[in-house]
Amino acid sequence: MSEHTDAPSPTTPPAGCPAHGSAVRLGGLEYQQTPSQLYRAMRREHGAVAPVLLDGDIPAWLVLGYPEVCYVTGHDELFARDSRRWNQWPNIPEDWPLLPFVGYQPSVLFTEGPEHQRRAGVITHALEGVDQFELARECQSIAEQLISGFAGSGEAELMGVFAHALPARAVLWMCGMPQDSADTERLVDDLRISLDAEEGDDPVAAYLRVGARIAQLVKEKRERPGPDVTSRMILDPAGLSDEEIVQDLISVIAAAQQPTANWICNTLRLLLTDERFAVNVSGGRVSVGDALTEVLWLDTPTQNFIGRWAVRDTQLGGRLIREGDCLVLGLSAANTDPQIWPDSHVGAENSAHLSFSNGEHRCPYPAPLLADVMARTAVETLLERLPDLVLAVDTAELTWRPSIWMRGLASLPVRFTPSAH
User: Residues annotated as region Disordered (predicted)?
Assistant: First the structure.
């Protein structure tokens, strides 16, 4: 991670700065169970842009409004991605838990302008080479293998044995990693730790291990290219260096794995707990697509994303944003903004949600389509194999992971008729 010793010295925060007294700490039980209520309360008190405190009481702004998130993500000249602009670097400890998210790396995530277009173009072309029908077949095969591992027991905890494992294996398959190796399993676990650490985990160390394994993969594919995302990135005429490819592959894998796992699990939760779906699902699953879309609106897997950094002093949502201030994109809050849903009714037929972000730095096409293939195949295969699947606990006993960034269940225990096939 960069030391950022050349960052500007902090000054006493003005009244309009997120460091002032009414800032809201991003954390606590409200995020674990009912973040939507917290976002509503913050919107009532602060408006569309709220002063917040990150880990260690580091000040930032949380952008809650749908129009404001669209504005920030659509104006890179005002709100840029290079985190070296941050005016708080002198206050950031070396072991800060959010460093994997904001510590500058030479990856597509932090590039801007023509360089971002070049790097994102390589990713887009590499992902366009993925045959969606072949991906669906591979996901179905992975799902069948995973389900066979627990089908005979009549019970399972789906977050751990299914929802997390399927997209991890699928995205690593797309990248050309060998399947069913201990080395791949370790990589999957390190990805989880670096993105959504539990108590006692070391996310920075896990991130470094991920980087080392992906560097090894790039070296292997440069020597023996194949029909995979990694090889297509290596062979692209843009001529990315190995370091650039490693960084961008990590971004692709991380963006595909954890959010898709939570999308799968959140959708299964909705299908198993909401009577609107329960009746229809068993009769042909016509509503799986509706459930997938509704989850993106109401329980979007990436609820907050850090972030953007102000290029110069500017106004947003009635706030004075200072040069170098950090803005956290409140994707979940924006998706449920009462300005766009005045009757509090979210329609599954509408796909204008911000779950894949917006603007130049949104998930590159066709990444959302590939994520949809993974999630839809996972849910449909599970329901076909285990048609009498039910929750093993009361709905009220389901708990959400205590993360302000990801929206996902701690566990999803289910019961079903044991099956030998």
Answer: 1-21
More confident residue, 314 or 404: 314
- The candidate with the shortest Cα–Cα distance to 386, out of 154, 159, 142, is 154
What would the pLDDT profile of 121-160 be if each residue is shown by its tens digit? 999 999 999 999 999 999 999 999 999 999 999 999 999 8
Under 8 Å between Cβ of 342 and 327: no
Q: What is the pLDDT of residue 166?
A: 94
CA distance 354 to 144: 32
Residue 307's H or E segment, with its range, is strand 305-310
For residue 188 the two structure tokens come to 């999957």
Taking CA 28 as the corner, what is the angle to CA 23 and CA 34, rounded to the nearest 5 degrees? 100
127-131: long-range contacts, CB 8 A cutoff, minimum separation 24? 127/229, 127/252, 127/364, 127/365, 127/366, 127/367, 127/370, 128/365, 128/366, 129/227, 129/229, 129/232, 130/174, 130/229, 130/366, 130/370
Distance of CA 358 to the CA centre of its chain: 14
Buried b (16+ CB within 10 A) or exposed e, 317-339: bebebbebbbbbbbbbbbbbbee
DSSP bridge partners of 390: 415
Pick from 59, 71, 30: nearest CA to 329: 71
CATH superfamily of 24-415: Cytochrome P450 (1.10.630.10)
Within 8 A by CB and 6+ apart from 92, the residues are 4, 56, 58, 99
**288, 258, 263: which is closest to 274 by C-alpha?**
288
Amino acid at 151: A
pLDDT at 283 > cutoff 60: no
Could you give phi then psi for residue 94, rounded to 5 degrees?
-65, -25
Residue-averaged pLDDT of the chain: 88
Q: Which residues contact 145 (CB under 8 A, 6 or more apart)?
A: none
For 17, the 3-state DSSP assignment is coil
Tokens representing 408 are: 């996902």
Query: Which pLDDT tens digit goes with each residue over 295-310?
Result: 999 899 999 999 999 9
According to DSSP, residue 329 is labeled E
What are the residues whose beta carbons fall under 8 Å from the beta carbon of 244, sequence distance 6 or more?
106, 107, 119
